[in-house]
Write a structure and sequence with these properties.
Blueprint (H helix, E strand, L loop, with lengths): L1 H12 L4 H13 L3 H14 L1 H17 L12 H21 L1 H28 L3 H12 L5 H11 L7
Helix pairs in contact: 1-2, 2-3, 2-4, 3-4, 5-6, 5-7, 6-7, 6-8, 7-8
């Protein structure tokens, strides 16, 4: 417990450091105290938006598990995130097109990652009353990958259901 408390204090002394946040979160998880990770993030949001923004992606899964979706809303950045997910998928798709026999499994993993990531973003937007933005993300993501699996995941996300990890 002392180590965990020390890790949290070290992080709070340098709250923009994602590695220190992840250390504290890992110790909290090991000690079955994930709620402390949420509390730690919430504390930082109250003192420094920029520091919270720097560690948000590391905190997101903890916030989702705790049902604290409202803490996610200021940090979602749908445009930026969708661009990153799309570019990652596009680059892997280009590799697969160039060497299909080598990279077929890689493309399948890339699609799964893309769908999980985008569906999580859509669910968070929807749960925070940002349905117009969620619909825009759906429309734009279907321009990247469009099949029944993707459409079902997006529809479930729009109703506030997160994809399985």
């Amino acid at each position: 417990m002392e180590t965990r408390d020390d890790a949290e204090q070290v992080y709070l002394a340098s709250p923009a450091n994602r590695n220190l946040f992840q250390d504290a979160a890992a110790l909290n998880h090991t000690l079955a105290a994930d709620s402390r990770t949420v509390e730690l993030f919430e504390r930082v949001t109250q003192t420094s938006f920029e520091s919270a923004k720097a560690v948000y992606l590391s905190a997101e899964r903890h916030l989702i598990r705790a049902g604290r979706y409202e803490l996610c809303s200021p940090f979602l950045q749908p445009e930026k995130r969708l661009f990153g997910y799309s570019e990652s998928y596009r680059l892997i798709k280009e590799r697969e097109d160039a060497e299909p026999e080598v990279n077929i499994a890689l493309l399948s993993c890339a699609k799964s990652y893309f769908v999980r990531s985008v569906a999580t973003l859509i669910a968070l937007l929807a749960l925070n009353g940002r349905k117009d933005e969620a619909m825009d993300v759906i429309k734009r993501s279907l321009d990247i990958v469009d099949d029944n699996e993707v459409r079902e995941a997006m529809e479930a996300a729009l109703s506030g259901h997160f994809p399985e990890r």
